[in-house]
Amino acid sequence: MRFVFPPIRRSRNPLVRALSLVLGLAAVAMLLVFGVVVLGVLFVGGLVFLAVRQWKITRGPVEGSARPTPAQDPNVLEGEFVVIHQRQPAHR
Fold first, then answer.
1. What is the pLDDT of residues 23-78, one digit of tens each?
2. Using the 8-state DSSP alphabet, how is residue 47 labeled?
3. How far, in Å, CA of 53 to CA of 20, rounded?
4. How far is residue 83 from each of residues 45, 76, 80, 86, measured CA to CA in Å?
5. Where are the domains of the chain?
6. Between the CA of residue 41 and those of 5, 50, 77, what are the distances in Å?
7. Could you give the 3-state DSSP secondary structure of residue 84?
8. What DSSP assignment string belongs to 50-83?
9. Does the reported pTM lie above 0.70?
10. CB-CB contact of 20 with 13 (8 Å)
11. Quick one: which of 26, 21, 25 has its CA closest to 10?
């Protein structure tokens, strides 16, 4: 079973055809302008976000923050480790 739309009846009046063309072009132009505005808002918002983030990074750590300071020695690895006790040795 297929659903078929009825055929579109176009007006033969050239004035109505021209008006529908102008309305269609106006709708496309409005969507284009709206898309450009949304793109601009996202771009400006991203720039503001990055500027605020960069400003917070350059200000330094906040007093009383719970974050541990990184190790001064670059050769030191920090992390959490779990000791695994093996009851019987593995056979090789």
1. 999 999 999 999 999 999 999 999 999 999 999 988 876 665 555 555 567 777 77
2. H
3. 49
4. 47, 19, 10, 10
5. 11-62
6. 40, 14, 43
7. coil
8. HHHHHHHHHH-PPTT--PPPPPSSTT-------P
9. no
10. no
11. 21
The number of beta carbons lying within 10 Å of the beta carbon of residue 12 is: 7
Question: For residue 18, how many C-alpha atoms fall within 13 Å in the half-sphere facing its CB?
Answer: 3
Give the CB-side neighbour count of residue 3, counting CA atoms within 13 A.
0
35, 11, 9, 31: which is closest to 21 by C-alpha? 11
Look-up of token digits 């709708």:
27
Three-state secondary-structure class, residue 44: helix
